[in-house]
Design brief:
The protein is an all-alpha fold. It has one domain. Helix content is about 75%, strand content about 0%. The protein has 5 helices and no strands. The radius of gyration is 23 Å and the shape is elongated.
């Protein structure tokens, strides 16, 4: 564990670590969660038919339809995508400063 922290500090491994963490978060938010929502929706116990829905109270019908047509909104895009802007600034800034140092 001590070697890991030395790598993060002295060899500027934090840049690679930051990129890996960002990639994991994006894969989770844009691939895994929407896939999971789609699979869970398909595996529901009782399929809804028009006859079944029409037997419900109109306010309940609306809520059932909203639940079945729910679209995943990625958590990292809420707030105008500031999360992605912040990670982009960190990764871009570190890449530019590293390039300037090597000249």
């Amino acid at each position: 564990m001590k070697r890991f922290f030395i790598w993060l500090q002295e060899e500027e491994g934090w840049k690679a670590f930051l990129a890996i963490i960002y990639a994991i978060i994006c894969i989770f938010d844009f691939v895994l969660v929407p896939t999971w929502i789609g699979i869970v929706r398909e595996l529901s116990d009782e399929p809804l038919t028009a006859e079944l829905i029409s037997s419900f109270n109109p306010s309940v019908q609306l809520r059932v339809i909203e639940a079945y047509t729910f679209q995943h909104e990625p958590l990292t895009l809420k707030g105008g995508g500031i999360f992605h802007l912040a990670f982009g600034a960190l990764l871009t800034g570190s890449a530019i400063t590293a390039r300037i140092r090597t000249r």
